[in-house]
Inverse folding.
């Protein structure tokens, strides 16, 4: 599935409500999911780990939707010849 | 571009170093990027916003790579008939 396609699915399902909620409150939901990912990463529950990765990605798409950012287009930063801004320490 | 394809690009470029760094230290890098996204969301700099979304997604892929999680497969949670675990408040 294309990155853009997934972002679009999230948009169709949730964008209306996401716009009403706004960026700050949506960011708080995103962070809640990031916290759940941290918990999952520290566990041995592979199924839960997979779910939490999906949740963080879905909420990242939500934030992108209400910020008018096309995540797939944004990723060309990494897929072009020059990688900028990524610190591979 | 497919979600899996992007995750693979990040894997080829960085997985060896990512594995050496390990999950806790990589999670800290991920959170640093999440913080930069928060700063970008509060600004009016659209170019920077786009870049920070890409960075957070790239580091999420990194975490998935060293956790043996296929992000595209994980996303079927949202693309099947039943959406589980997503709280669209």
């Amino acid at each position: 599935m294309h990155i853009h396609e997934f972002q679009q699915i999230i948009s169709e399902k949730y964008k209306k409500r996401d716009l009403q909620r706004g960026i700050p409150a949506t960011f708080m939901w995103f962070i809640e999911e990031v916290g759940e990912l941290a918990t999952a990463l520290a566990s041995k529950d592979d199924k839960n780990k997979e779910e939490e990765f999906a949740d963080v990605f879905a909420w990242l798409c939500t934030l992108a939707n209400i910020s008018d950012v096309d995540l797939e287009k944004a990723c060309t930063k990494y897929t072009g010849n020059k990688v900028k801004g990524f610190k591979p320490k």
